[in-house]
Design a protein that fits this description.
Blueprint: H1 2-8, H2 11-18, H3 32-52, E1 67-71, H4 79-84, E2 88-92, H5 96-108, E3 114-116, E4 128-134, H6 143-153, E5 154-165, H7 169-178, H8 198-207, E6 210-221, E7 225-229, E8 235-242
Parallel strand pairs: 1-2, 1-4, 2-3, 4-5
Antiparallel strand pairs: 5-8, 6-7, 6-8
């Protein structure tokens, strides 16, 4: 099992994000960019959930009765909204510091979330209706093994939603040259060479037995902030499911 774990988790990446745990929930702290991204990501996810499980579009809890897994949860920025949507939620992170902060914050909010400092490959649980992993794959050591592990947790009629930066000259400029100097992203957060293009990520998903059913870019509008867009040059989101026979 140790070999499997080392194939996906990068200890340096886990330590980097673990060091930011204390102020993860501070909108002006080291995770400020994630706070700005979160509303747009949630809007995309809610639309995908409503399309996949029609009939709950007017409900505040469209995931009621469903199991969800959030991999690379950090301190719970995405996990808590998923729990509020009614999901029976399990959330994983490689950094124990993040799990400690996430658990304490959820408890203070009156939310029940099964937080674990466990690699996804070590989980015995399977058949999750929803699997999410946002801004994570660019930090793992073996993206193909990571996607295969996520696919192995997805129920036959489940939905997977991922987001990640694209590998383009514009993403290097926006996320590293500017973002990690004056944009509020901590230095060393990103390695541009680890970014995956949409075609590369689609190939990994297909190799794991999944098919991409929807894709959207995530771009920045000076008037509105981050918005969903047809332009995926900086960042994008993908929705996938098991291939239909």
């Amino acid at each position: 099992m140790a070999d499997t774990v080392s194939a996906t988790i990068d200890p340096k990446e886990a330590a980097h994000f673990g060091a930011m745990a204390a102020d993860w929930w501070d909108p002006a702290g080291s995770s400020a960019m994630l706070h700005k991204l979160n509303p747009v990501r949630l809007a995309y996810m809610r639309a995908a959930i409503d399309r996949h499980w029609p009939g709950e579009a007017r409900s505040f809890t469209p995931l009621a009765g469903r199991r969800a897994l959030d991999v690379g949860c950090g301190a719970g920025l995405l996990a808590e909204p998923l729990a509020r949507m009614g999901a029976r939620l399990t959330a994983l992170d490689a950094a124990p510091e993040n799990i400690a902060v996430a658990s304490a914050h959820a408890q203070a909010q009156g939310l029940t979330i099964d937080y674990r400092a466990t690699p996804v490959e070590e989980m015995a649980d399977r058949d999750f209706d929803l699997v999410t992993s946002m801004e994570v794959i660019e930090h793992v050591a073996d993206p193909a093994a990571f996607i295969a592990a996520l696919a192995g947790k997805l129920a036959p009629d489940g939905l997977m939603i991922l987001s990640t930066p694209n590998r383009t000259p514009l993403s290097r400029l926006a996320m590293i040259t500017i973002g990690e100097s004056v944009g509020g992203i901590p230095k060393g957060t990103h390695d541009w060479n680890r970014f995956l293009t949409p075609d590369e990520l689609t190939e990994l998903l297909e190799a794991a037995g999944l098919e991409v059913i929807e894709r959207s870019g995530l771009s920045f509008d000076p008037r509105k902030g981050f918005v969903l867009s047809s332009n995926s040059a900086i960042n994008y989101l993908l929705t996938a499911r098991h291939k239909r026979t």
